[in-house]
Amino acid sequence: MSLSTHSRVVEVRAGGRGAPRFVSSPNPSLSWRVDTDAEGWTQAGAVVEARRGERIERHEVAGNASASVAWPFAPLSAYERAEIRVSVTGADGSEIPAGEWTAVEAGPLSPADWNAAFVAAADDATAGAPDPATVRDGSTNDEVRAALRAETADRGTSRFRRDVTIERPVSRALLSYTAHGVVEFTIDGEPVSDELLAPGWTSYRDLLNFSTVDVTDRLSAGDHALGAWVGPGWYAEYFGFDGDFFRTWRGARALSAQLRIEYADGGVETITTDESWSATIASAIRFASIYQGERFDARLSDAGLTLEGALPGAAPAVVAPADPARLRPAGAPPVRVTERREVAATVATASGGTILDFGQNLVGRLRIRVSGEAGTTIRIRHAEVIERDELGVRPLRFAEAADEYTLAGGGVEEWAPRFTFHGFRYAEITGVDPAAVEVVAEVIGSDLVRTGWFDTDIAEINRLHQNVVWSTRSNFVSIPSDCPQRDERLGWTGDIQVFADTAGYLFDTQAFLGSWMESVAADQARIGGVGPLYVPLIDQNLFPPTPMAAWSDVTTVVPMALYRQQGDLGLLAAQYPSMRSWVDVVRGECIDGLWESGMQLADWLDPTAPPERPFEAKTDPYLVATAYAYRSATLVAEAAAALGYADDEAVYSAFADEVRAAFQRAYVTPAGRMMSDSQTAYAVGIAFGLLPEELVAAAGERLAGIVERGQHRIGTGFVGTPIISDALTMSGHRDVAQAMLQTSELPSWLYPVSMGATTIWERWDSMLPDGSINPGEMTSFNHYALGAVADWLHRDVGGIAPLETGWQKFLVRPRAGLASRASAQLDTAFGGIRVEWAAADPGAGERSALDATVVVPPNTTAVIDLPGREPVEVGSGTHHFIS
């Protein structure tokens, strides 16, 4: 250990990275980092100070805890502003003084802090609007499409206004707002935030988020106009499947907001939504839908929300029915524009038109600048791929994914839709010459903090990894969705269940997934403890709530993934009742330790399954169900141990042992063969720890043989794909796992890359070799689940794997073979981990000696395991090894 010449406490924060400025809990967890050049530095203790007004409180933290430390003070009150700072003591005796104070701010924290009514426009007829035509009533698909695209009452927007006068200096003003719908709040006609699609999508029956923003600098002395646009959003969308669509949440578009003004003289005033607000449905937005798009007629634009203007046709707002007990402060990173991309190329269509290619499949909207004659309508259609020299729109199914803008005339006009988003790489503009339109694609998503990077000397592997990153960004829009483009975009739980580890390396998902898991628990409670197929739950007629292995297991897998990544016991404790409730359901499903009942999606999208029957996988669905019963039972036992629930740990450990024994009796032969002789069967047996230790080698040999006989092509679906590389590696066949990532034959991970993919596809063959789209109705080109192999790439090629929760101790064990050079970086709560290596003898594959540099952040340790060397544990600092 060397003494430091430079040490300081940095990045003190409350709550998760990327979360909103105003905390969502009165007891936010605390984290801090230490920046020091001392080698091998660890924390021996810390003092956390809280300044609340003139009072300073101190709390001592023993040991090395510095990430997700439980809030040690009295809970924050609504609208309280406290300050935190931390000083630390090193194990080397060094004293590092506290740095600057870090503000911890709260707005309203519970329904008890909310005094605002929900108000609607008196002329809003949404509540009485009928559902659209559906195939259930005998309508054709074309009739259903026409009904979904009709400009009905519940496809419009509402606007709200209240004029206020500020008569004395303001010291602090906080605005909190939410909606039945999606809202853009303005002051004097300008948005108060860059957040889009607030309040996001939650299980609205039980949870409705509100946003809080500081608007102090917007309320100078004088008159101001408070205003809001409210569009339908998810709240009023028509959800369903196969031509049968209808609303889940009913009622008018409604706004609820409260503005708390603290004056310099000590006075406090609260302005809330009520009948004193004016409202109207008159708007230039004629139509808005998440799935169908937005239509804007600029000839109808007005200055209704500006200080100088007035809402045309406005009348006093009416109070709308709403349950305030649902209200929660937003905890997830806001949805924002996170990137802008220019047109990369243009493509001439077979019909004589022009398609804009943005070079990347993405999620967002187009922003256009154009001038022209009043009444000219510009139509923008979006698609992920081109098929036969035209936009490939068939996979969109009943989603039109089209925007329209009608010019006002008289000069240059700029526009982007407010209340929709699309998944696309390509767009076609008609109604004007596309060359006369300035266009930029605005990438939209929940603004998570990027934490993980990976690179090799193999261009195809790098492209695959970039595709994983882009599919994550594309599908993290308020919720973790399955796909971002067609008439679905639901929070399918099986997708994130298999992808949680990968996502948690690439991004800090604590606030995002932690918030979504609250909706998981709420919906789960509504259906008797069964883990939902998708969250938020929608009313639909295709999938009855039923225990579904791998999907329902989101209730156990994601909370434990978050705990392992962040070490936050508070989040684990909050989700523990949901975890236990699900495994109790599974216990009821199992007979003598086997789960062999009910419909199971199982190894969904096994490449051998027919396009229209993706559940017909090679692997016995009940083998998969029983395997997941074991996995979830072990996770609940692990959670119980972490939380100190000894009795529960014993109960669920015993159940896991019972299931494991039953699995071995029913599905494993004495020779180590699986009764389902498939890649996925062996993968779950090995990776989940279901096989007797003495049979792992034989099972691995059989798995490797199956893969090699298949010329290293993929034979797994949703369940097997994330773990087959691990199963091969754990059983001594890393070279076979590497070979699976070296072929571009169909089906394989590199086949889409060879076809020009810039995101992960839903199917291995979403596009066929001849350039045509897979004939199945369910075909997406932006689905992250099959990209879960990136987790293995990060650990086995990049060389960064966790050993303790929160990455306070980690393993560095990279191996060559797939690549001859690689680098990986992970920004943990303690600081950045970095591994860079080059193979001394690339031809030797995984046995090659490595020239490696490893950066270990302060207050952590790493076990370095390189070929030809005994593992060694090192502390913080930069280390160089030649094996």
From TrEMBL:
<dbReference type="InterPro" id="IPR013737">
    <property type="entry name" value="Bac_rhamnosid_N"/>
</dbReference>
<feature type="domain" description="Alpha-L-rhamnosidase concanavalin-like">
    <location>
        <begin position="349"/>
        <end position="441"/>
    </location>
</feature>
<feature type="domain" description="Alpha-L-rhamnosidase six-hairpin glycosidase">
    <location>
        <begin position="450"/>
        <end position="797"/>
    </location>
</feature>
<dbReference type="InterPro" id="IPR008902">
    <property type="entry name" value="Rhamnosid_concanavalin"/>
</dbReference>
<dbReference type="Pfam" id="PF08531">
    <property type="entry name" value="Bac_rhamnosid_N"/>
</dbReference>
<dbReference type="InterPro" id="IPR012341">
    <property type="entry name" value="6hp_glycosidase-like_sf"/>
</dbReference>
<dbReference type="Pfam" id="PF25788">
    <property type="entry name" value="Ig_Rha78A_N"/>
</dbReference>
<dbReference type="Pfam" id="PF17389">
    <property type="entry name" value="Bac_rhamnosid6H"/>
</dbReference>
<dbReference type="GO" id="GO:0005975">
    <property type="term" value="P:carbohydrate metabolic process"/>
</dbReference>
<dbReference type="InterPro" id="IPR035396">
    <property type="entry name" value="Bac_rhamnosid6H"/>
</dbReference>
<protein>
    <recommendedName>
        <fullName>alpha-L-rhamnosidase</fullName>
        <ecNumber>3.2.1.40</ecNumber>
    </recommendedName>
</protein>
<dbReference type="InterPro" id="IPR035398">
    <property type="entry name" value="Bac_rhamnosid_C"/>
</dbReference>
<dbReference type="Pfam" id="PF17390">
    <property type="entry name" value="Bac_rhamnosid_C"/>
</dbReference>
<feature type="domain" description="Alpha-L-rhamnosidase C-terminal">
    <location>
        <begin position="799"/>
        <end position="877"/>
    </location>
</feature>
<dbReference type="Pfam" id="PF05592">
    <property type="entry name" value="Bac_rhamnosid"/>
</dbReference>
<dbReference type="InterPro" id="IPR016007">
    <property type="entry name" value="Alpha_rhamnosid"/>
</dbReference>
<dbReference type="InterPro" id="IPR008928">
    <property type="entry name" value="6-hairpin_glycosidase_sf"/>
</dbReference>
<keyword id="KW-0378">Hydrolase</keyword>
<dbReference type="GO" id="GO:0030596">
    <property type="term" value="F:alpha-L-rhamnosidase activity"/>
</dbReference>
<feature type="domain" description="Bacterial alpha-L-rhamnosidase N-terminal">
    <location>
        <begin position="170"/>
        <end position="339"/>
    </location>
</feature>
